[in-house]
Amino acid sequence: MMYEDSTVFDPIGILTAYEDAEGQAEHAIGSLGIDANGYLEIIDADAGREDLLQTLVERINDKAAIAVVEGGPAGQTFGTQVRSIPRGEASFPAALQEYVRTYYGVRLV
Amino acid sequence: MMKPVGADSIVPDIPPQATPSEPPPAASANAGVLDNRQVDHAPPATARAQWQPVRPNVSFRQAVVAPLGQEHPEHIVNRELSELEADIARLERLGDPRAAEPRDLANSVRKERSLPKAHELLGTLRSKLQEYRSSPEYQVHVDLDEAKRWISDYERWGKKCPASLTRAAKQADACVKNGDVARAGTLLRSIRSERELTQQRRLLKHKHRAAVQALQLEFQRIEPIARSAVQLRPQLKTLLNNYHEAQKAARYHDKASPQDLEQARTRLEQAANDLIVALARELQPQDTDSPKIQTALAPLNNDLYAALELPAQNLVDRARLLEPGNLEQALLHRRLADNGTYQRTATAQTQLIRDARAVLQPGGELNSMVASRPAARDEASYFSRLNAERDSLDAVRKSYLMSAELDDSAETDDEKVLSPAERAAWNDLSRTLARLPGFLRQPVNVGTLLRHEEDALRADPARYTTALQDLALAKQQADRLVRLTAARLEQEIDALDRFADPAEKSNAALQFANQHMHHDGLLPSMRALSVSHQRKLLDAVRGGLPQNDLSTQQRRVQSRLYKSMQLDPAFLHEEKRLREATVATLMAHKPELQRARDEWPSLSPARKLEVIKLIVATHCKVAGFAPPDNIDFRDLDSSTVAAVWDAKSRTLAVNSAAAGLSDFEATMNTIFHENSHNWQFELRAGLNEHPPRITEHSPAHRQAQLFDATMDYYDDGASDQRSAYREQPIEAHAMLAGPRFARALMSALDA
Q1: pLDDT tens for residues B14-56?
Q2: How far apart are the first and last CA of chain A?
Q3: Where are the domains of chain B?
Q4: At what angle do helices B569-586 and B729-750 cross, to 10 degrees?
Q5: Distance of CA A27 to CAs A96, B345, B380, Å?
Q6: Quick check: B645 and A69 CB within 8 A?
Q7: Would the CB atoms of A14 and B327 count as touching at under 8 Å?
Q8: Does residue B240 sit at the A interface (CB-CB below 8 Å)?
């Protein structure tokens, strides 16, 4: 279940997905459409990487917000904080790109 | 209302249809009509094939063509009637009496209210016209109509139709009226053939002009640079003239054959490429150049590479939006892909790799060099590595350039920080860097590099090999310079021991740091200091004071020193091995972890705690350190803190109320991050035990020393905006380990 409205997926841009395996040069594996609320949809995918992109798209589309792990608040020793950035916030696209790169090794440009 | 992907609302309201095994629904009154249509004038097979049940995930193409298969019988009658009326009108224009009866029949069809009767009349009309349609003059009449329409098109667009064509059409018209069908057919065939030729010519002209315009557009920023460069390098004049002559030769003219035009375009492209390659070569300053010429060449060189970046941006844009380059087309491709008819167009990346292969073809030696570089999976990644090597050289170059001590205005050698050996190494490096071709000295897009280097490499692969050898030499020289400088800095740090008083020593250390660490000056050399010297300098700067008593200046210098520290490669290698082993061990619980991942937001706190404990226990067991004494999963009464490692009580506390921890990936990152702090304390303890558990043979030894040197002077980011919170070794390690563990875990769970 992806969209809150009944309209068709209405992308505002196309992102190229680059896979960034640790210690290897990144390479393009497909393209994703992104709509105004940050929902993603596969436009095309390299053979063998469809599953990765499909999983990625489903997981991201299921999230109402993106969690960003940061260092602890000022004055806190050995602590972390996690900020939730809901869809629609100005910082959401950047958070989404960082999240996908961090946890799925995919850079969206 | 939530809506699943694929249930596109672009699908029109298609009424429910029968399944393939059932006959198409037909009202009893229309049954005969439908039967008649299907037997005598069956719609194309593609239309019949649309009698399919509506599937929930119908594709764009299916949605668009589906209505054709359900064309209403009334529409079919109207469409066929219109086609037949066109024939009637033609006969009427020619004054042919055969038009009278069909016209009456056509009028009757239009007036008929009963669909079966309309079909019946349509059948009669069709048979009446069948005789005319199969006659020899029919095709001539159709061709004449078409020729007239073509001539009127000229007028409509304000163009003058060639007199020969108007004359031929008039003659054909007269022949038709006189019944000379054979002569009319010959004339019309000549008109048709001339029309096709004109269309081909127009298309050729359009394509040629567009191609030439694209080439000139790409070159328009380079031409002024070339004009200026000719003043300094007269040898470029011939190439510039060649380009101008090629430009003139590439102008379209009607008598040129397609081959002539293609040759002209190739010549223009070749002339432009020759000029670019020559500019890249000639704009490099030579030892024989006067200082005035060298000064004049620098801005031109910069302009050239700025100009070459422009097409690189186009390349990026093309990669972002799939060819042919607009959103609608890209979406259409995506939708057609559902139907299996879409072939993926080449992206810039694949084009890049193809181009790169072409580059590598000329030089066998180059191929062997590529093969000798590990993990360069393809040519594009190889060039990326070259760029990375160039970047590291650039860091060294900038580092020394920014060092004010290189300023030649210093009057004596004593005023200059670099020793004679360092200065000689710096001069060697500068000379080698100057020999490198521009693409190895300046940041440049790999695509641009390949496009503009390819021809030059084909002509002279040895030049490229030489450039790579120079690059390797420059790296060696940079390493030597860094080592020499680091050795001298270490001597100066040792000399701080002459101060017995901690305050005096701190002042001297601060002076030393300010001298060598303003901006990013000598950063590579500071990073190359031994751990013991890094630690000695830190201790000297602190002057024996605890963290809370440090002055602002001491804190700032400490932050800069933290920033110059790097995680030890041997430790990183070991950390990666242990991280992967932790994930592999956790896969014994793969089904439970997969369930936890999928249900994490709604999982009970007790169940979440179980998962957290499993992760932490496995990490500790695999890496060989003690687990926390306590793991709390409770409301920490803080809106900001997600998790904390408390070293004193050896407690890992996780905030059950933190909204961000409803995210599985972020939670795994956080847990591993905090447990990495636990590991760091264990490493420090192992270093200081008697006998030490962490010996100098341990891969973690160097990093453990850095943890030990910084752990009691934790930069919590509260005191200064220029703090090194993220760069201090303790956090740098945890912030690397947490995300990488989460990513490895997600990948393993999805495998």
Answers
A1: 333 333 333 333 333 333 333 333 333 333 333 333 333 333 3
A2: 25
A3: 220-334, 364-563, 569-750
A4: 30
A5: 19, 16, 9
A6: no
A7: yes
A8: no
